[in-house]
Amino acid sequence: MSMPVTRILVIRNEQGLHARPAELFVRLAKQFQSRIEVVREGRRVEATSIIELLTLGAGPGTELLLEVEGDDAEEAANALAKLVESGFAGDEPN
């Protein structure tokens, strides 16, 4: 088995990883075949579960570790990192 693809994600939007951005994250994660997990301070959750993501309590500035394993791991990691880096573009009112 290959090594997981990892990325450090920093939550940039003002409200943190609340329901709406978590839902966007989950929806994107479900588009990939790879196993995708998010880790915060040793707590590991499935990226395809909105409930599990919300339990991380990731407020603004929180660092998360993204771990992706599978055939489309690189593509999945890049897409999810881009979503987080954009501050969940489209989530915040203008």
Sheet with most strands: strand arrangement: 1-4-2-3
Q: Could you tell me the number of beta strands? A: 4
Taking the alpha carbons of the first and last residues, their distance comes to: 44 Å
Radius of gyration based on Cα positions: 12 Å
Question: How would you portray this structure in words?
Answer:
It is a single chain. The chain has 94 residues and is of the alpha+beta class. The protein is built from 3 helices and 4 strands. It has helices spanning 19-29, 50-54, 73-85; strands at 5-10, 35-40, 43-46, 63-69. The protein has a 4-stranded antiparallel β-sheet with strand order 1-4-2-3, with helices on one face. Helix 1 packs antiparallel against helix 3 (73-85). The chain starts with a strand and ends in a 9-residue tail after the last helix.
Write the layout of secondary structure elements.
Elements: E1 5-10, H1 19-29, E2 35-40, E3 43-46, H2 50-54, E4 63-69, H3 73-85
Antiparallel strand pairs: 1-4, 2-3, 2-4
In short:
This protein is α+β, with helices and mostly antiparallel strands and 94 residues long. The chain has helices at 19-29, 50-54, 73-85; strands spanning 5-10, 35-40, 43-46, 63-69. A four-stranded antiparallel β-sheet has the order 1-4-2-3, with helices on one face.
